[in-house]
Amino acid sequence: MTRSMGKITVVRRVVQGCMLVLFCLPPLLAGWGLAGLFAGGDGEVATPAAGVFFGSLSSSSVAGVPLFDPLGALEVMAASRGLLAASALTGALLVVVVYGLVRGRAFCGWVCPVNLVGEGVDAARRRLGIEVPERTVPRRAKIGMAVAVVLLSALVGFPVFELISPIGAVNKGLVFGGFAGAGTLLAIVIAELLVSRRLWCRALCPLGGTFQVLGRAGQVNVAIDHDACIHCDKCTHVCLADPEILAPALAGEDTIVRAGDCMACGACVDACPTSALRFRFGRPRRSQKGTESGSARSRKDVDVAVTVAAGGIGSPDVPSREEM
After folding, report:
1. Coil, strand, or helix at residue 174?
2. Pairing state of beta strands 53-55 and 59-62?
3. Closest CA relative to residue 161, chosen from 111, 198, 108, 204
């Protein structure tokens, strides 16, 4: 059975494609080829790194400002048993702040190429009529994976995950020709197709675990209108993160999807037939009954753009276990 894409999913696909193109542009504009190949002649050509933007999803430079993924930065510090250079540390903290304020796993939903591959496998599995379990490993296991990667990096003296990262197999492979994580990517595709749905992204990816922790403070959240919800469960069937993160909101215990695991992918919003789900800014505190008062709801339910213009970003709650 095929599924039509909703508006948010269409926009997300465009963003995912643009991110792949963005990293490919610097070498192409400098007269080089992709996959680390040189496509120029005998004359002098510019170095791709000399441009305004250059790098990968692990580390990049934008107008001279370095950016580093937070897990990679932790691995390097653990491996070297010291702090990063001030510029590198600033770049890592900048990524943490941006994704922390938006929603940590928005990286997974909107940027990560492995998630795009996983969605392709989802579509292939549906077409082939292959049934696999929804969940075989707890989603919080990836937080432990992130801790294990950092500890192992400290033990062996180099960033372990960078050697096997499937993200690098797509992103770095396409740009630089380094396919170190290709074996991991192949294993993920086989597992997605035959073992369990979204096993890597939901339960095993250490970078996803890092962003899951950051997501506990995210200000971009899926909100629910309990009066409009008809409990058709279409949202749980399409959730890319894990259907269990929707349970408190669907049960009337909360007004937003509070779990840090939410990718803000918008799949549930697109799938809702009654428009009971939508994006909103802020993390309202739960009342004793788990819902906001009418006055609080009317103050909070404003358009995202208006909220940004007004600077109205809510303060995060102290997270509970269910929020992780």
Report:
1. helix
2. antiparallel
3. 204
